[in-house]
Design goal:
This protein is of the alpha+beta class. The protein contains 2 helices and 10 strands, in the order ααββββββββββ. About 20% of the residues lie in helices and about 40% in strands. The longest helix is centred in the N-terminal third of the chain and has 18 residues.
C-alpha cells in the first residue's frame, strides 16, 4: 500500500515538473534555438520572402527572437515570455516585442527539419495566422529550415 502511495505521488509530480521547464529548456528540447530561413544561402530580405527568424538564448533564462528583414529594414526583436511544448511536433510561445511590449501567442509546427507558424493570436483574440495560413492574404505561412 505504501509503494502504491509513493507511485501515485510520483505520477502527480510529473505534470508539475513538466510545467516547471524554463523557456530555454522548452526551446532546446524542441530544437528551435538557432537561425531559420526559407533560403539559407541567400541574405535575409522581406521583399523576396526570405526573412530570418533567429531564436537565441539570452543571459537570463529567456529566449530572444529577432526577425531579420534585410539591410533596408530594422529588425523586430522580441523576448519569449513563456513557452510550452504542445505535442510532439508543436510548441506554443508568447512573444513580447521589446519596442512596445505588444504580445502575440504563436504556435509553431516542426516537420522534420522545417518549421512553420500554424497560428498567431493577439491578446484580444485577433488571429494573424490560423491553420498555417496568413489571415490577411490567405497564403500559407512560410516554411523555414535551420541554417548552419
Amino acid at each position: 500500500m505504501r509503494a502504491w502511495g509513493i507511485a501515485v505521488a510520483l505520477l502527480l509530480a510529473l505534470p508539475i515538473s513538466a510545467q516547471a521547464q524554463s523557456v530555454q529548456d522548452v526551446f532546446r528540447n524542441f530544437g528551435l534555438t538557432g537561425v531559420w530561413a526559407s533560403a539559407c544561402n541567400q541574405p535575409p530580405d522581406i521583399e523576396s520572402g526570405n526573412p530570418q527568424a533567429i531564436y537565441a538564448r539570452s543571459s537570463s533564462d529567456d529566449v530572444m527572437l529577432t526577425y531579420d528583414y534585410g539591410a533596408k529594414h530594422r529588425p523586430a526583436v522580441y523576448t519569449i515570455v513563456s513557452a510550452q511544448q504542445a505535442g510532439r511536433d508543436q510548441v506554443s510561445y508568447v512573444e513580447e516585442r521589446l519596442r512596445d511590449k505588444a504580445r502575440l501567442t504563436v504556435t509553431v509546427l516542426r516537420a522534420r527539419d522545417q518549421i512553420s507558424v500554424i497560428s498567431a493570436v493577439g491578446p484580444d483574440g485577433r488571429a494573424f495566422a490560423e491553420n498555417g495560413r496568413i489571415i490577411a492574404t490567405g497564403q500559407p505561412t512560410p516554411q523555414q529550415v535551420r541554417c548552419q
